[in-house]
Write a structure and sequence with these properties.
Blueprint lengths: L12 H8 L8 E6 L2 E6 L6 H12 L3 E5 L2 E4 H17 L7 E5 L5 H11 L3 E4 L6 H11 L3 E4 L1 H7 L11 E4 L10 E3 L1 H4 L23 E6 L9 E5 H21 L16 E4 L6 H14 L2 E4 L5 H11 L3 E4 L1 H8 L14 E4 L6 H10 L4 E8 L4 E7 H6 L6 E2 L4 E5 L12 E6 L6 E2 L3 H7 E2 L2 E10 L5 E6 L4 E3 L2 E3 L1 H10 L3 E11 L3 E10 L7 H9 L10 E5 L13 H5 L4
Parallel strand pairs: 3-13, 5-6, 5-7, 7-8, 8-9, 12-13, 14-15, 15-16, 28-29
Antiparallel strand pairs: 1-2, 3-4, 10-11, 11-21, 16-17, 17-18, 19-20, 20-23, 22-23, 23-24, 25-26, 27-28
Helix pairs in contact: 1-8, 2-3, 2-9, 3-4, 5-6, 8-9, 11-12
Length: 577
């Protein structure tokens, strides 16, 4: 903890939560029965995604919403495109509960496809834009999608596989030249190109009843091992992040003994977010896109993250928030041209998906004194954010991923299912109105993972005396060397402390006697150097000998990650085969 911890906090976590959720507050709680389980819920959260759409359009119609290269789309133009596509989907016979797959990179058309889908009562099914053709085919067939909305690159991967998707009846393709293929509809023939959306006729809202517990989305799990599973979420699951993130922000002030700033003043400057993570992931959609709409924020879309391009956009668009995985923050901090750009507009830099060193928090505060660093923990099955960490709490507990927000709960269990006490390591379970219904068409996997409203996360973790969560490791990633447990995160965190290390991953290598032994791959910061012997000694000076990697590969290339930002350790293990 830092010196600031001597006077921090002014209010204990339990008292802060009680004050913030009191009757009449923005974060007031209610109780409803969800799938037979009494559950505390956000009383003031939008009941469905339709209310999110209507609020954003009615409140912020003239504001810019999406910026993609030289294309700029207002909230009103976005709304017109959504309703035009929704009308066409209804004309094609799409019914409530049908699945509509969205397979495209981050384009203005992505949120249009998403909201048109949910407004007609269908289930939006985002597919990973990084997937190969057979993987995309798997998603279409597994979900039984009736409609596909895609772009030319994804279509190119799928072109010879569409015949193998018997449920698929319609395919829309955006940004595609005219095609003689009768199976394909140019999306522009329905809604036009983004610059023309503002001139579209204003169609009526679809007359489809929607309720908080109606099915709304299927997001596929990361799939680092085995086939991805479709995580089925309701409208309530999709809207929970709106108040979860606001709660975390306000908790900073309440814990400090201060009154949070007033929200919703139309005179407030517009928030601007740099989008470097894909919408097809739960973080990009649930924790970024949907909350941004309630704020009336502007989103700047990047095709792929590049540090210098990001800094140009931050300066040009006066970006107020950015984030992704910790490596993105490091790439900006360490870039040799960072001082050439005006990055003073940044107010929030948040990340997740991988552990971040305490050094990163300190550097961010030094480089961007106006910004509030943040991190958190969540997964596809929790609909995004479940615990969150910002500001002073994060600075004082930089190795934690925060405390639960509002009605959410966590617990740690041992192998026998018994709930463990403070700081005991076991499996993390999560509960709340954000927990998804289960896995699409996979009853056995659902029964194994979702139990009486709780989700078994597979993470090894501990909770301290005040309620802050610390992820120790993924249970399946933990190494056992000669009977001794090695938590990968513990070793990785030590490697992160080395001044040259930007990214680190520990994996196991088979050993005939010990079972397995630890090996590491690290990425060094631009311009920095480190040797294998230097890094092994650095770890040996801080951890027991059995935890020291027997081999360390040092590289300048980024570590391989999936769309969730998680390091693909299966690929790294091959380096030590």
């Amino acid at each position: 903890m830092t010196d600031a911890s001597k006077s921090w906090p002014a209010l204990p976590l339990s008292e802060a939560h009680a004050l913030m959720t009191a009757p009449g507050s923005l974060f007031e709680l209610d109780e409803v029965v969800i799938r037979g389980v009494p559950t505390k819920v956000w009383k003031n959260a939008p009941p469905t995604l339709r209310e999110v759409f209507l609020f954003a359009r009615n409140m912020f119609g003239a504001r810019e919403f999406l910026v993609h290269e030289d294309e700029r789309v207002t909230y009103d133009a976005f709304g017109r495109a959504v309703l035009a596509l929704a009308e066409d989907l209804r004309r094609r016979g799409v019914q409530k509960g049908d699945r509509i797959a969205i397979a495209m990179r981050n384009l203005p058309e992505w949120p249009v496809a998403f909201f048109a889908t949910v407004l007609v009562g269908a289930i939006a099914t985002p597919l990973n834009a990084w997937w190969t053709g057979p993987e995309l085919e798997y998603g279409l067939k597994d979900s039984g999608s009736r409609v596909l909305i895609t772009d030319p690159e994804r279509l190119g991967r799928l072109a010879d596989l569409l015949e193998g998707c018997p449920d698929l009846q319609s395919v829309y393709v955006t940004r595609m030249p005219a095609s003689p293929d009768p199976r394909l509809t140019r999306l522009e023939d329905v809604i036009g190109a983004p610059p023309a959306w503002a001139t579209l006729e204003d169609r009526p809202l679809p007359d489809v009843p929607l309720h908080p517990e109606d099915d709304a989305t299927i997001f596929y799990t990361s799939g680092t091992t085995g086939k991805p599973k479709g995580a089925l979420a309701t409208h309530r699951n999709n809207t929970g992040n709106i108040l979860a993130l606001a709660f975390s922000f306000d908790r900073n002030f309440v814990r400090r003994g201060e009154t949070p700033p007033v929200r919703g003043n139309p005179e407030d400057a517009q928030k601007v977010g740099l989008v470097g993570i894909p919408f097809f992931h739960t973080t990009g959609c649930h924790a970024l896109l949907i909350p941004a709409m309630i704020q009336g924020a502007k989103l700047i879309l990047m095709r792929r993250f590049d540090a210098e391009d990001a800094m140009k956009l931050i300066e040009r668009e006066r970006v107020t928030s950015a984030g992704g995985v910790p490596a993105i923050a490091w790439l900006i901090l360490e870039h040799p041209n960072a001082s050439s750009y005006d990055l003073s507009s940044l107010e929030s830099i948040s990340y997740g998906g991988a552990p971040a060193s305490p050094e990163l928090v300190r550097r961010l505060v030094e480089a961007f004194p106006k910004s509030i660093p943040g991190t958190g923990w969540g997964m596809t099955e929790t609909g995004g954010t479940h615990t969150h960490h910002q500001g002073d709490d994060y600075r004082n507990r930089p190795d934690s991923c925060g405390a639960v927000v509002g009605p959410y709960r966590i617990k740690i269990t041992g192998p026998d299912g018994r709930e463990l006490g403070p700081n005991e390591v076991g499996e993390l379970w999560a509960f709340g109105p954000n927990i998804l219904k289960g896995y699409w068409n996979k009853p056995e996997a659902t029964a194994e993972t979702f139990v009486d409203g709780w989700v078994r996360t597979g993470d090894l973790a501990r909770i301290d005396e005040e309620g802050f969560l610390y992820i120790v490791d993924r249970a399946k990633d933990m190494l056992i060397r000669g009977g001794e447990n090695i938590y990968c995160v513990e070793v990785e965190n030590v490697l992160y402390e080395h001044p040259a290390v930007m990214d680190a991953a520990l994996v196991g290598r088979p050993h005939p006697v010990l079972g397995e032994e630890p090996c590491a791959v690290v990425t060094v910061k631009p311009g920095a150097t480190a040797t294998e012997d230097e890094l092994r000694k650095f770890v040996a000076d801080r951890l027991a000998a059995f935890k020291v990697p027997v081999s360390i590969i040092v590289r300048s290339d980024p570590l391989p990650r999936n769309a969730n930002g998680k390091i693909l350790k299966t690929e790294l293990k091959g380096l030590f085969a």
